[in-house]
């Protein structure tokens, strides 16, 4: 069951033995961050060769990993820009007098079936299917047009020739193949491709819709938690995901910290859950902010499909799908913030939505925090590490030094006190290569790529 | 428990704000809508009461952020749950209050319209009264218009690391993908005018203005919204060999949305309405 990554060793992998090194950083250096450049989603494709990012300006940038060079074996290739396109534009809903942001909320890759790559990208209202394909030949020698497209003067055409294909510089085309619009009253928070590769779901605050990839003008509504009397509304949907293997199963999380698993075989409408996962509240930790901090910001199945992981404001919880009463593992991401919740409420940081991800063999989970810190938890060896994504540590192949935050009292050397954390530098989006120890970590407007040290 | 006066004020605020976030309301765009009132709140009322609302917005923010932990745990207005409840008009009485306000606002509107439209010698005076502010924003239906989106390819050259046109020949001088693309509202007229001058750069002018994208794909068309989107993606260099005297003939042979002969190229003007005599190169 244990898989190996790179040359880091065998079954006895401990997280301490994995040393993370800086590999690359993408994005502008200046501190003045343009709003449009704020990264809003990061996603590897199924092979890990492509890495897609979406930003607040509605653009998608896809990086491609260079093949390993023969000169330097065992040195992974760099990720370079492969394609970039404007996915969504701002729109205006004149009925409600509201601007619809072009920010890309989520990107999901479809499994690759032919030479082209397909991905779904979504903003608050509209999901689009994009085809990314390569072109390396161009037709030349038309009779009526010059090669640059201008029409030739008919008088100069004296002979007839057959156009031929000539090689050209590789060009990557992105074209929108489907636009799935107008199915969500509220803001779309998640999309998830089904393992059947034909359908996908999209969820907003109150509803989940099931789409067929080929059909754009309608979708099935499979979950609707909007009550007849809005007074009775107590929670909203925050995230949703399809099971990686079982095409009939999906989950959705709520703002109250509960996860519902639904089976589409039970009925057409999945308002009644098949399983209900919720941990009873710890009375010691109860506070005015309990409900806010228990709101789940991300939910992810493990690759195996046996477990799922949820992220709330302060912790990561791993759930066994066979046990609904409580999580099997809980990891505190930044417990030192528990006493600061009042100020975090004041500056709205308490509403930040952190994502989380699994590594390829489900042995390690990762999530972001503040001050450009991110955290990894090794499930097997119960160890965790805090690392930082910053330009100071950006010499190629330089090993990242673990960080520590002191929660009070004596501050040891090299520790950072809670009060000096920069809460504007938050890492909300992280992604782990599905097959290798390569991670992508997004700060506000920069994308960092780290990899484990190869001997 | 609730101060209904305060709550209705809050509600009025929250109803008008985007559901996405309470925090990001400052730059929110509003547009006057002359459509009949279909939903609860009239759009007209929002526009006309804008000045008043701006003050209220700030005060509401203060109200919603008590410095100490409020005694009632129910008041958590920044959560999505609360925003949705407010939008849907939870309280019947508040809904009626809001409706009353709309009706009154509508009456005010019709009165002020009558005043400003009536012929009188006091026109200057009347124009000072509230009139709908013109907002330069193109309304787009929630469904994408058929001229944009589907079928439009965007091509990128990994070796050159720039966007290219779909025939692969004419690279466009786009800054790195991490920077914002062009200007969304750039009029197609600008592109065409600048192209007559060719690659000569004028001081202070951005590359994107001097080298607008040219369509070499036959008769399609600078007229469609394609051009504005192309302008968003930036502009193309035309191959140098074409830029001598043959420019004018090139321009006249391509489709253009109007009479292009005699139009001087724009220098660094952003406005499509700049008078012709100002457009000579500096």
UniProtKB/TrEMBL annotation, chain A:
Q: What is this protein called?
A: Serine/threonine-protein phosphatase 2A 55 kDa regulatory subunit B
Gene Ontology cellular-component annotations: protein phosphatase type 2A complex
| Keywords of this entry | Repeat, WD repeat
Entry-linked Gene3D superfamilies: YVTN repeat-like/Quinoprotein amine dehydrogenase (2.130.10.10)
Q: Where is this region: Disordered?
A: 392-412
Looking up PANTHER family in the UniProt record yields: PROTEIN PHOSPHATASE PP2A REGULATORY SUBUNIT B (PTHR11871)
Q: How does it assemble?
A: PP2A consists of a common heterodimeric core enzyme, composed of a 36 kDa catalytic subunit (subunit C) and a 65 kDa constant regulatory subunit (PR65 or subunit A), that associates with a variety of regulatory subunits.
Give the UniProt family note. Belongs to the phosphatase 2A regulatory subunit B family.
Task: Give TM segment ranges.
Answer: none
Listed GO MF terms: protein phosphatase regulator activity
From TrEMBL, chain B:
Q: Where is the composition biased (Polar residues)?
A: 114-132
Span list, region Disordered:
1-23, 114-152, 247-282
* Molecular function GO terms recorded: protein serine/threonine phosphatase inhibitor activity
Q: Of which family is this protein a member?
A: Belongs to the FAM122 family.
Stretches of Low complexity bias are at 247-256
From the Swiss-Prot or TrEMBL record, give the protein name: PABIR family member 2
List the InterPro entries: PBIR1/2/3
